[in-house]
Specification:
Blueprint lengths: L2 H4 L1 H6 L7 H4 L7 E2 L3 E2 L19 H14 L14 H10 L3 H25 L8 H9 L12 H19 L2 H6 L16 H6 L4
Helix pairs in contact: 4-5, 5-8, 6-8
Length: 205
């Protein structure tokens, strides 16, 4: 699980994935949604849990923080995932009352429960209290569904979703966009077109 080589491709491949809309969409809407009432005003700022009750317990949030930081640790470029609010992002995501979010809630909550139980079974400690070697060993068994043992496929499905959510939360934050050298969302006094070097690289010059 190398941050620079195994995570960025997930974001590159899913740049238009709706998960990013939770933090980046600015369109306002008051249209009623069947079963949910009206959509929140997306141009407003809300505190965690203000739109709907949050799902994760204190122990689940602690595990979420540990696992997110294992996937996206602090380095010389940027802070860890938990330091930029990824735990709140995941908790909000799985707490939203929409069908896809509720499906993800089941996967995440069940997966966190599995990790707590499995780490206790293997070591007598919860995952957050394991040393880094033990944490990596448990994650390595479920980090690739194609290679995971058949009895671990549900856990591997959880890990894949958790990794995508943690990555989306991190790289859609201001710190994460800076880490990717993303230069959008910045007003320009003038625009002279794409750089000549880029056009040459693409064969468009």
């Amino acid at each position: 699980m190398d941050r620079r080589t195994s995570i960025k491709w997930v974001l590159a491949a899913s740049a238009a994935w709706p998960v990013l809309a939770t933090r980046s969409t600015r369109a306002d809407s008051s249209l009623p949604v069947r079963g949910y009432g009206t959509d929140p005003k997306l141009v407003a700022d809300y505190r965690p849990g203000e739109l709907w009750p949050l799902t994760l317990s204190a122990s689940q949030r602690r595990l979420t923080s540990t696992l997110a930081d294992l996937i996206l640790p602090a380095d010389e470029h940027s802070p860890s995932a938990s330091a930029v609010g990824v735990v709140d992002f995941i908790d909000e995501w799985v707490s939203a009352p929409y069908e896809d979010h509720q499906r993800d809630q089941t996967i995440i909550v069940d997966g966190l429960g599995w990790m707590i139980g499995e780490s206790i079974r293997q070591s007598g400690k919860v995952f957050s209290d394991l040393d880094t070697t033990q944490q990596h060993a448990l994650c390595d068994a479920i980090c690739d569904e194609a290679r995971a043992r058949s009895e671990l496929h549900s856990a591997a499905r959880f890990f894949a979703l958790f990794r995508d959510l943690a990555s989306a939360g991190f790289y859609s934050s201001p710190v994460g966009r800076k880490d990717l050298n993303f230069i959008g969302n910045v007003p320009l006094a003038r625009f002279d077109g794409p750089p000549a070097a880029l056009l040459k690289t693409l064969g468009l010059q």
